[in-house]
Amino acid sequence: MFNSHFHSKYSHDAHSELESIIDCAIKKGFKGIALTDHCNCNFTPERNDFETVSAGLIKLESLKEKYQGKIKLLKGVEIGEELFRKENAEKMRAIGGYDVILGSSHEYLRDGVFLRTATQEYDKWTSEEVSGYTNYYYSYILQMVKETDIDVVCHLTLPLRYLKRRGVNYDNTVHDNTIKEIFSLMIKRGIALELNTSGYLSGLFLPDEYYLKLYKSVGGKLVTIGTDAHVDEKIAQGFLEGLELLKKAGFSSYYYFEKRKPQEVKIQI
Length: 269
Ligand SMILES: [Zn+2]
Ligand SMILES: [Zn+2]
Known about the structure:
The protein has a single domain (2-266), classed as Alpha-Beta Barrel (TIM Barrel). Helices cover 36% and strands 22% of the residues.
């Protein structure tokens, strides 16, 4: 089992020590895990992800000897909002030695202001406002897969999680043509699709079975699994359920990245 997405205390929104997470991962039976702390590319004195992510990767490197033969420790980063902050993203990328680079979007640029998408009160928004956000999101992801040097698109369809939390029903199929375009570009560029299992308890995988099947139907093969855990004991959250879902969607393998090259893992359940 290889988990390609988790956060440690080196992310602004997580607190677990790396060793504690690694010990939990070994207990849960993982053969490898990729540390992918947040880099929002907006390096300010209040939140300097360049410093924290770098410190986390140095710590990970220092633990490799201790855990040798027990678990593979992979170096990664989750880069968000790169299109607006390219120089800082390049600075983050330039430290090098990555096994995997995830690309994501957590903000919504509306009327010149970046809104944090996780915390908006969508239930108070009009349907036009909601569409404004979702249109923005998919065009951002499309641009991201066109322009940026990433290995994995993580938690595709993220707006569905936030809308669901606020009780907003939303028909995402209006974006299917854009999503197909995103998939085609990813396949062409060798960028993998992540199955993000962090929402499994509420029954919402990102993306869900419908989009996994759509990805497969247009020729998609490269799928990674990320639990996106922000707490040590949740390192395996939804992982086995994610494997079941992949099988159901017609995949017989998933992948993890090492030195930025996809490695195949057969699904054996
Ligand atoms: Zn994320
Ligand atoms: Zn994440």
